[in-house]
Write a structure and sequence with these properties.
The chain has 203 residues and is an all-alpha fold. Helix content is 59%, strand content 0%. Helix 4 runs antiparallel to helix 5.
């Protein structure tokens, strides 16, 4: 943080190691299940699910947050934004939801779009692993990630309603998981869930 001496703790290195491992495994999953002939230039907005629209809209916010923080030399804030987006939103939620997608083609396009932008945003912090993954990406126009264009907000992916809807869904799933953990209920055990939704929350 600005104004503080740099404290290199073992815990910080461990966090970085785990994030590197998470990114590497997520990239392997995306690339192993990818049709190499796929193009992200012709993505149809109408075919996007609420999860697709949520992650793309959240990507816009991450791009803005990282770019603004770097311009103000707030490197700790930029890294925190990236960590939250890559680990919790992209890896923990969207990758898992994508496994259930019916339209695999559109889902693959979204996975690639988000992954490419994540690599670019993360490159100043983790140059070697991001460059290595970039070299394995299909259809990249830039030979080196360091010479590629910095990500910019794409207005066509902005979707406030999708973000709100997905956050509600995540909240519900997280609450159910907490109940399972509290009562020590196995993940394979089916349970009945009752949702009490008011008229203002039906959407």
């Amino acid at each position: 943080s600005p104004g503080q001496d740099v404290f290199l703790s073992k815990q910080k290195f461990e966090i970085g190691r785990k994030l590197s491992n998470k990114l590497w495994n997520a990239s392997r999953y995306v690339l192993m299940n990818l049709d190499e002939s796929i193009s992200t230039d012709d993505i149809n907005i109408e075919n996007l699910t609420i999860a697709d629209r949520w992650i793309l809209s959240s990507l816009n916010d991450a791009i803005d947050g990282v770019t603004k923080s770097l311009r103000m030399y707030r490197f700790n804030e930029a890294s925190s934004v990236l960590y939250e987006f890559i680990w919790h939103k992209y890896c923990d939620w969207y990758l898992e939801v994508s496994k259930l997608a019916s339209d695999k083609g559109t889902t693959q396009k979204v996975l690639i779009i988000v992954l490419k932008n994540c690599l670019k945003l993360l490159h100043p912090f983790m140059p070697f692993i991001t460059e290595d993954i970039w070299q394995k990406m299909p259809g990249v126009n830039d030979k080196w990630i360091m010479t590629s264009k910095w990500p910019e907000r794409d207005k066509k992916y902005e979707d406030v309603s999708a973000v709100q809807g997905m956050e509600k869904l995540i909240g519900i799933v997280s609450a159910i998981r907490n109940v399972r953990a509290f009562w020590n209920i196995g993940h394979k055990t089916k349970i009945d869930v009752l949702l009490n939704i008011s008229s203002s929350e039906e959407q």
